[in-house]
Amino acid sequence: MKRLLRKKRLRTIFLLLVVAIVVANCIEIRGLTQPTSVKAGDTLTAVVKAWMDPYWSQPQSRMVIGFLAPRSWDARNNMRMTYTSGIGNGTMSPVPANATPKGSSQPWSEAIQERVGIGGNYINDVEWVVFQSDQAYDMSDLPEINAVVTIKVKTGPENLRVKLGYFNASSQQELSESKFYGKQFSDCFEVTDGAGDLIDFCSPQISAIQPASATDNDIITIKYDEDAIATNLSGADKVFICAKAWTTNNEVIEVCSQDASSALVPLGGKKWQLDLWPRKFFNLQDNQTLERMEYYYTDKTGTIKVFKFGNTGDPFVFKFICR
Amino acid sequence: MKKWINLSLAVLALTILVLAACQKEKELVFTESNKPLTGSWKIVKALRNGEDMTSRFDFTAFRINFKDSSYTITDPVPFVVNKNGKWRFDDPQYPLELTFQPEGGNATKPVFKYPVVKGKRSLILTFSPGCTSSKYEYTLEPLPQ
């Protein structure tokens, strides 16, 4: 009986060891320090503790760090990264445009977005910007590496709240399993004293437009989330947009017809969207350029209307500006 | 005598063999064919900042028709150019640059690829029709002629 028990215990220990080896992470983010807010245009400094246990063969490997930021920050051109670690200190640079993770055909930013998404941000106008160490190291069978990465990025001009994202990996390791990369999203970070109304990536928006920076010659996506505020339009089977646009010559063009061109597409979960090309939507002539538009949502009769505060308030405003 | 004749024939055969072996082989020269865009093309895939817009926005009617040096656009969508005009490759055999010169507008050179996928020539264009912060990637395929 004793022998049987000992055998069973050994088997359990062996199984636990196997599970531990399979589940154990090889790459992680083990710490993040960043301020809760900065002023628009100022530099945000974040410090990331990137940990790696490179027990496998990794000759000529570079440390890879991804940073999720609002697209309007242009972080690729406005960010600097440096690191200190037990195997060396150095600088980092953007990965080449056509670089892909090992064994993948997707560029780094797309591969990261597919695996870890955009965190808790409600507006998909953010991008993963990916840097790698300028120096490559033979990381084969090294003891654990604890790198401290300092990220300095100039914030954009707008007032906003956003959850920033951080990612670490190795250039010589496939991203085939989640244990081969680390990720962390921050709490809501705020840019203050900037231009325009607050763009709140952190909260559900009754209405949002993507990309946040666009001209009348972009395809813009108008998103309506009826869950954000209960309105008289909640539960409607069809939702339309009524819009009024101003050209740079102060001409006013109104489109409010409750037809197919202004009907939002239901996405499920009480969310709707409409992809439109403003030049066509407002039937612009070659010599007309849009400066801004105001819009609200209606039902199929055009009598129920949803504004900034739900059933009341001003119409939503979108300015056609490249930031 | 017979021995001599046999020997002579053997020497002759050997000589022919040696001479034939030394003949320089005809060099096979492969010439890269020109890569014409001629014909009508449609958009089969459209990405905006990596997001697939193909089924979300109506690209179905858009056509760009390339002739020898000119192009025409029907049912326009946000594109590299909005007006008809001229086009050219910097090198018809090994094109690295594709230039669109719209009527009355400035020349534009989108980033382009011209791969053959499953036996079909594709044209992949990357450009920003509005703000430069937004990148669009369209994959076009030629219509059967």
Molecular structure report:
The complex is a heterodimer of chains A (323) and B (145). With 323 residues, chain A is mainly β. In chain A, 12% of the residues lie in helices and 41% in strands. Chain A has helices at 2-23, 75-78, 108-116, 278-281, and strands at residues 27-33, 37-39, 43-52, 63-70, 79-84, 90-94, 126-133, 145-154, 158-170, 182-192, 195-200, 207-210, 220-225, 240-247, 252-255, 265-268, 271-276, 290-298, 305-306, 316-319. Residues 15-23 of chain A have low confidence and may be disordered. Chain B contains 1 helix and 11 strands; from the N terminus they run H-E-E-E-E-E-E-E-E-E-E-E. In chain B, a hairpin with an 8-residue loop joins strand 10 and strand 11 (136-142). The A-B interface holds A 71-72, 74, 109-110, 113, 124, 127, 211, 213-219, 221, 265, 275, 277, 279, 322-323 and B 48-51, 53, 56-57, 77-78, 82, 129-134, 136.
Rg over CA atoms of chain B: 28 Å
Count of individual beta strands of chain A: 20
Strand content of chain B: 25-35%
- In total, how many domains does the architecture of chain A comprise? 2
Index terms:
heterodimer; A: 323 residues; mainly beta; Immunoglobulin-like; eleven-stranded mixed beta sheet; five-stranded antiparallel beta sheet; 41% strand; elongated; B: 145 residues; alpha+beta; Lipocalin; two-stranded antiparallel sheet; 14% helix
List the helices and strands and how they pair.
The complex is a heterodimer of chains A (323) and B (145).
Chain A: H1 2-23, E1 27-33, E2 37-39, E3 43-52, E4 63-70, H2 75-78, E5 79-84, E6 90-94, H3 108-116, E7 126-133, E8 145-154, E9 158-170, E10 182-192, E11 195-200, E12 207-210, E13 220-225, E14 240-247, E15 252-255, E16 265-268, E17 271-276, H4 278-281, E18 290-298, E19 305-306, E20 316-319
Chain B: H1 2-22, E1 39-48, E2 51-52, E3 63-66, E4 70-74, E5 85-89, E6 98-102, E7 111-113, E8 116-117, E9 120-121, E10 123-127, E11 136-142
Antiparallel strand pairs in B: 1-2, 1-3, 1-11, 3-4, 4-5, 5-6, 7-10, 8-9, 10-11
